[in-house]
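Appendix B, Record 12. Input sequence as logged:
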Amino acid sequence: MALFGAIYLIPLYLSQIHDYTPLEIGEVIMWMGFPQLLVLPLVPKLMQRYDPRYLAGFGFALFSISYYMNSHMTADYAGDQMIASQIVRALGQPFILVPIGILATMHLTAHENASASTVLNVMRNLGGAFGIALVATLSDNLARVHLAHIKETLPAVSAPAYQYINDTTLLLQSAGSDAVSANTQAYALLTQNMNQQAYIQAYNDVFFIMACFLSIAVVAVLSIRKPAASNTADAPNEMH
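Logged structural output:
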């Protein structure tokens, strides 16, 4: 859910709020992949020295932090500002993907591994599909809620709103539009800005909700009962 949710939300945010092209989006998303190449070879060695539960808990904690870093975005928050959270997310991902297979099968016997592998893959696919559906629904519904709140706090007699319409109308007229068209365009721009702010707040809420979910995952993975010493030693060979 966390992995596919980020892959869905970030391109959507960049294209909707900042009009990024697919190439520009790719230049931001790639930061969630490259740092993993440095960390991934170290994880198996760390698993020989540390409990996989602690490594997975550390990975989930980094994932949660990375989502929280994206929960305070403004209209000025674009691809360059997302690189730091992408790197944190990339550093945490190997600590989840590698140990989680061991944790999922460490209490099973050898003849149960084939069925367990199937169930694990199905649950991963379901988690990704459910995660995308969840973040898409939440972002859309929360945007409507925030837009309604913005409209409530911006009545027709609002002095700042009137000043914005007046200044924008004069600016458009100076660019060559007639008075009526300029006024209509000014109202359209105000509506566009309101929608943009509503979606930014919705994205912030979704990132924060996902950070909370991942914090629960930290507690959940650390609560898995510790395997017997023999199971721990055999699990990597069985998974291989």
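Residues 123 and 145 are 32 Å apart (CA to CA).
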